[in-house]
Amino acid sequence: MNSELPLIEPIWPVQAGVRAFCTTRIGGVSLPPWDSLNLGDHVGDRRGDVLENRSQLARQAGLGPGSLAWLSQIHGTRVVEVARGNLNRLPEADASFTRELGIACVILTADCLPVILADRNGRVVGAAHAGWRSLCGGVLENLVEAMAVQPEELLAWMGPAIGPGQFEVGPEVRDAFLAVDPRASSAFAEAGARPGHFMADIYQLAYQRLQNAGVNAVHGGGFCTVTDAARFYSYRRDRQTGRMATLVWLS
Length: 251
Prior knowledge:
By secondary structure, the protein is an alpha+beta fold. The chain has helices at residues 47-61, 132-137, 139-147, 171-180, 202-212, 235-238; strands at 7-8, 18-23, 68-70, 79-81, 95-98, 104-109, 113-119, 125-130, 154-158, 168-169, 188-190, 198-200, 217-220, 244-250. The chain has a single domain, classed as CNF1/YfiH-like putative cysteine hydrolases (4-Layer Sandwich). The strands form three sheets. It has a six-stranded mixed sheet. It has a five-stranded mixed sheet with strand order 1-2-14-6-3, with no helix packed on it. A three-stranded antiparallel sheet has the order 10-12-11. Strand 7 (113-119) and strand 8 (125-130) form a beta hairpin. The two termini are 13 Å apart.
């Protein structure tokens, strides 16, 4: 891969044919407040700039522009299988997977957690948009089930998301997670400045859900999109902002 765009490549023990990376906000043509590698076509940026950014991304990945599976994400739990025949008519969904070579599953984020999965044999890959609503609703479990391999044969990597020191939530968010799994309480700390509110660790919550689904090899985490303004977009920090992309594919 060349160095045209500064990218984050996962450190995880996958087969050589599994390719993945996450973009930063750096290297594109979008103007403020979307500067500069905005890949979201739903955030008010000029369409031509977004298309140019997406073209740059595809070129650097060594994929054709029509080989990236852009989803219409709705903070839900639906999973779709992507293939050559449906790339131009994908439904609303928050996770995708593929067994075909040269097709990238793509997730857009700007604080929500991107999670990618690959099996140890390098035959199937998937990606999920795991914001708190999707995560709590079971998007990761749905993706693991849809990929149809033994969960212990899957590897996971968690990309850039809002860090635990920045993710303040109301009691309803904590209650929603605890209603599914009481052990989720360990991922919430009381927010001292606002009684009744909590600081949530979305990485820990995702790790717990993956472990509960049988996925034991979980890598990544440790980023914070809010505090690292030089590299990452953050909706919570800036409101009007761009989107980064996390891709995984079989080459």
